[in-house]
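User: For my dataset I need records formatted as: sequence, then structure tokens, nothing else. Please produce one.
Assistant:
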Amino acid sequence: MRIFAFFFALLFFGCAENQTTTNSTSPDPIDSLFSSWFKSNEPGGAVLVVKDGKIIYQKAFGVADTKTNEAITTKTLFNVGSISKTFVAYGILKLAKEGKLSLEDPTSKYFPDFANKDIANKVKIYHLLTHSSGLPDSRKISEDSVFYLTAKDEENFAPIKQTQQLNFEPGTKFEYSNPAFNGLALIIEKVSGIKWQKYITDNIYKPAGMTASTITDGPHPESGVSHGYLHANGDFVEKDYMEEPTFAASGNGGVWSSVEELWKYEQAVQANSFLDKEWTDKSRTIYSFPGWNDKEPSFMGLSWFITKFENQSMVGHTGSQGGFISDYLWLPEKKVFYVLLCNTPKDIIVMRKELFRVLDLK
């Protein structure tokens, strides 16, 4: 599963226009920009831009399924890849707010079967949330790709529990980790006593009004969602469940949502709909590590990347999994929200840069 950190991914090219939903106040330059990246008869994407709380542009491009030629709309569900990690994080933070766990809890409290007890005692929940655990990704995905086609969170975290040596001391460096969020999803289940997918649905989706969004729990649905595609040999090849190893592991990338519903999510975050302000602010503040000695300063909140892009302060996350790629960001100083979901790889960083230029964000 290729799910990359916020602005670190080296991304791809191409996209497509089709059925659209456009706000009447949409600036023509934005439409020209996104229309140039999409074609009507190919996998494509959907985009939504908000300024000062109002949608200034929303539109959909291309097809959700190359077999049926079903058109993408702004309500179409895409796999959002690593943006899913923010939902898992909020599940953990809600349990912490309620006193049902602590971010200082060691991994050993929830996984007593860790082979090395000293390592499990060192790695805390907040290390998992901030990609600073030092736990290596020891999954043998290429050697056992067939197994990982259907392996879920438990199977993806199992190799990590056999760790005998950390890559670095917890809380000293950044190293992006998908399995960390498989583990966090399992912690939600252990503490709440229910499937973590249901916990997120009840405690995040519902308060946010995300009535259509779903979470992977086994087989990839054949209908009701878009499919992901890679372009190869002049054709589009499906690349999602049963084609992409680790796609069934959902803690790190299992959320399915639309641009419309992700805007509802962002509004719920800002309105403290499922957490109080103290915990919401904590999620979007760079976490303090007294022993940090990486070459770059820490830029992680509790799953959110807190960075600058084109000199703009930004909170967000990207996602890349199978044929899906996505970009989600909030610019607090400019009051701009932007989300792009595609079902075939695009150079989302270039697209974001061009959008900033069109919006004249300086």
